[in-house]
Amino acid sequence: MLGPVETRSVSPVFVGRTDELDTLNDALARAAAAEPQALLLGGEAGVGKTRLVEEFATAAARLAAVVAVGGCVEIGADGLPFAPFSTALRALRDALPEEFAAAAAGQEEELARLLPDLGEAGAGRHDEQGMARLFELTARLLERVAAEHTVVLVLEDLHWADASTRHLLAYLFRTLRAGRLLVLATYRSDDIHRRHPLRPLLAELDRLRTVRRIELARFTREEACRQIAGILAAEPDPAQVDEIYERSDGNAFFIEELAVAAAEGNCTGLTDSLRDLLLVRVEALPESAQRVARIVAEGGSTVEYRLIAAVARLTEDDLIEALRAAVGANLLTATRAGDGYRFRHSLVREAVADDLLPGERSRLNRRYAEALEADPALVPADARVMRLASYWYHAHDAAKALPAVLAAAVVARRRHAYTEQLGLLERAMELWDSAPQEVRSALRPVDYTEVYPPCGCDPATTPLRYLDLMAEAAVAGRFGGERERALKITKRALRLLEEEPDPLRAAWFWVQRSRLVQALARGDGWRELGTAQDLVRGLPPSEVHAEVLAVAANWSMQRRPGPEALAAAERAVEYAGMVGARETELHARLTLGGLTVESGDPEAGLAQMRQVLRETRAEGMHHVAGRAYVNLPTALQSVGRDREAVPLLREGIEFCRGYGLLDSGAWAWGNLSEALYSLGQWEEAAEAAAHATRVGHSAKPRGAGAVRLAHLALARGDLAEAGRQLAAARAWYGTHDPMPQQLLPLARITLGVAAADGRIADARAALLPALDAGFPPGTHRWGWPLLLAAATAEADARTLPAARPGRAEILDRLSAAGRTLTTGVPLWHAYDQWTRAELLRAEGRDTACTWSPVVTAFECLDRPYDLARVRHRLAGALLAEGGDDERDRAVELLRLAAAVAAHLGARPLADAVARLAQRARLTLTRAARPGPADPAAALGLTSRERDVLGLVAAGRTNRQIAEELFISPKTASVHVSNILSKLGVSGRGEAAAVAHRLGLFTAGPLAAETPG
Question: Which of 122, 559, 588, 897 has the fewest Cβ atoms surrounding its Cβ within 10 A?
Fold first, then answer.
């Protein structure tokens, strides 16, 4: 019972925190204006985070905001997957039922993984994108609910959060861009030690400009005095304030405890330990209330009343009396829902739990587990399995804990909480040898595992094996991003399989190891896949055999396409069909279709891929359909059918967004950017590429988006931006797994930037690795643009002395490489002609007859920028040949090229067209515009002499000047002599110096054209 002095454990006066409240209220105003807000509130235990959040939530509710609060739950040190989000979403659904239902429409099965109230979670697809899909759907749900209502989502006690909750919070903070939404997460800063799992997340979020972090400081002495006055309902004695403030060091919770203890006359009996201070209140309770407090402390953050009753084994009257005493002493408080109890502050719960004896702790956990087994309805259904597993594990009963932990792992997998699943499976492996043989032999793979296909056994009758747990754990680690742990498990499994050979199971683990090696950037995974193929070679068809072939074929399609890859894909389709592995069959057919297109039979391959897309959509295999929405348009683009690919890509982007297929969506955005670039829609292409860099879950699709942005910047003449995006693409791609579809575009852009900068040696250095590696079948899509860019760079640098050494060898190698690339469709035939023409230009042997068929070839294609470039080349060749008809035709060609360059913003092409027209003294515009006064006029220079002076300043010889201006070397010599006379100088160097001093030329007039 409380003493005669009336005190309050919580001050009725909210003290201080003005700046923090201002920050929160400002964020609320911004959120109400449809600018989503993300905030982190940190502070040591007891500093007043919860009180601040309560005050802010009350104020927000007065402004008609919907406040949904969810807290991370600590149960036996095992956080429940997504617990705070489940609680907050449930509150949000209760507050806005119609809006919530509309926002979740069509995705209830997937969202049920977070909020079981929505129904049974679908069997769904488990893969590395499963968690990302769930996160994307959750973000969209929140954005839709917050479209018309201001929503405040509060997630408390992040220091207890499970890994899945941390990942989801990070995703929301990174991706929320719409809606009237404010997300506020709190955590204990003093708990975040160097190895705490929250520490890396906080560091990551600190780097986001969209996240505001608030650190709650301790009270000043003045604030402490006001708090004590509120608790005591009287002005405190200054000496007492000094003593309490000194002992509490300004911590709000300890100020409360010390103030109450002083008011109740307990101060003299207290030790210097604040932990002992917390236990004094407990020890003052009746024995039955102390017993109940110990039970609640071990039960978790909150414990249901009926569960407390089952564990305490008191009469109902005695239990209620004990709870009343604990509540009256301000140790326990009722939960918001009124169905259970929790400690008023977690510091008190931790102190009581730490005071339990080891045997006492395990005995209480056993009682909890037994009560829950006897009556599962004692706790909410979505928490039941996890809590039972935790109770049995901490009861140290392996026979009971092993099946309970395995059941919890299944639940974690269904919720896409793969990191929690991995932890539970590791716990099961720890318990395996301790559990009795009869318990282990009663376990079945069909009940607890799903990743390893049943090969040659009946999973309903075959006992669960330790290797089954290792297989499940390896995949859970891969899906949850815990790749190091997964790789260790895989290596350990393969060592066990050396002692007990099982070729199929070993092959399966080698496939997992290949995927992990690639994901960890430690290789391309081919050695591991080769080992897997050796293990299954000669074995009868099985699901594992089919998967090994399908994975190997897909690997080869991306890196070494050819007859072997085609044969592997065909066998994968055959074997998967024979054993009924439908998903593997569809993946293999999609790969086979792509390889068929690349082998020279585009119509058959495209028909196969279209059929796979239809079947996957009809059968609800969304992940395979997402891949089809990437690979089918890719195949269309590889044969020059970009316009046909565009609507399919847009449809795929919407499909991927609808089903949360982030990486497939990012690849589709990148492909759309490439198609729009080809079609001359560069603004839309830039937007699509930017999307690709933002929406992907993995690095490589983001790298592809950066490549597209770099290519656009290069074509527009922004070399600095091209360099930045090139560096970003390299960072996303990494160096561990070189693929032609990444290396060749990177080489092309690197070469283009170097050539545009006049660094021909660097341009060649970018080209040579690709020439040395060769161009295997299927790489023509990236090979032809690279060869063309290289040939163009050599032609542009033909007159530069620095380019002469090694030119002949480079040109020969380019010509030889071109002969290895396919020209089976009009687009690549046109590229072949274009590249050959540039090689002739590099040798000074191109003519109008060289370029005319190139222009004709591109006039039949839907590629305006490419057509403009070759028209510019043909115009130059016509002008070199001379004649009035040729000049007239050149004028028209240059006008067309200039119009396209201006429309696209292709500055290098526009400049090249203008320079050519200027040298040939052509007027491309219908009416000349008056310009600023030409300083050359004051020197008496004619227009032609000014052109010649510009070339002299650029270091050209008389022969080079003649070639540039389509005049004879003798005429060029006469112009140079006249210029020297008019400038009053004796040599070419002095003439160049005068020209630059007078500002006649602000930039090099004849910079090399940037290859597109």
Answer: 122
